[in-house]
Amino acid sequence: MKDIAYIDLKQCILQDNEDIANEVRDLTKEKKFFLWNIMSSPGAGKTTFILDVISRLNGKYSIGVIEGDIESTIDAEKMHRLGVPTVQLRTGGDCHLDAAMIKKALENLPLEELDIVIVENIGNLVCPAEFDLGADLPSMLLSVPEGDDKAIKYPLMFSVCDALMVTKIDALGLFEFDFDALEKNTRKINDNLRIFPLSAKTGKGMEVFIEWLCKKINSKKETF
């Protein structure tokens, strides 16, 4: 009798995803655009943040958006009303976006006309962190109401990101949130993670972040 065959399906899935993520990276270079993946838990403020970023970058860059949701087109409709080319990815149950989904969505955007494509990932601090999308900037939002201990509970998400936007700082007076504890916890996982306290509602901290983001975008453009 033969030994039991063991196949690690998760490893196979992630390897397939990595291969397609590399194809997406090649596409960003070929079409000369910057791909930005934004992750967070539900309700952290991704859509509000993205809308504010678009308004601040309007006139500087041409922007497209890929919206990821399990159901509905609510957020995509908000982007579309701004005149931004938008693709809705509705997973119907999957709790994350993967590279194959992004590659398919990019086929439906006018990439030759765009400088930036923003991906609003599905609200989840677990699964999206496992799937490389081929993005130039993997990032996450953490809202003040969620607390400062999330790096301890969801270390993978913090480890794969280059930027952490701490949103809703206008609500600091209503919640116990320790920025020193947050930084201490994140540095144990990812010493290179850039942290930006901000509020898309009041605009506080947004200019600092936008300046940093533009440098990242322009740095890639210089390689084209």
Overview of the structural elements:
This protein starts with 8 loop residues before the first helix and ends with a helix. The chain has 224 residues and is α/β, with parallel strands linked by helices. The model has no long low-confidence stretch (mean pLDDT 92). Helix 1 runs parallel beside helix 4. The chain is globular, with a radius of gyration of 18 Å. It has a single domain, classed as 3-Layer(aba) Sandwich (Rossmann fold). The chain is 39% helix and 17% strand. It is built from eight helices and seven strands. It has a seven-stranded parallel beta sheet with strand order 3-2-4-1-5-6-7, sandwiched between helices. Strand 6, helix 7 and strand 7 form a beta-alpha-beta unit.
Keywords:
8 helices; alpha/beta; 7-stranded parallel sheet; Rossmann fold; 7 strands; 224 residues
How are the secondary structure elements laid out?
Layout: H1 9-31, E1 34-39, H2 46-57, E2 63-69, H3 74-81, E3 86-90, H4 99-106, E4 116-120, E5 137-143, H5 150-153, H6 155-160, E6 163-167, H7 179-189, E7 194-197, H8 206-221
Parallel strand pairs: 1-4, 1-5, 2-3, 2-4, 5-6, 6-7
Rg result? 18 Å
The termini sit apart by: 58 Å
Strand numbers in spatial order across the main sheet: 3-2-4-1-5-6-7
CATH architecture classification? 3-Layer(aba) Sandwich
Q: H/E series, N to C?
A: HEHEHEHEEHHEHEH
Q: How much of the sequence is in beta strands?
A: 15-25%
Give the structure's gist in a few sentences.
The protein has eight helices and seven strands; from the N terminus they run H-E-H-E-H-E-H-E-E-H-H-E-H-E-H. With 224 residues, the protein is of the alpha/beta class.
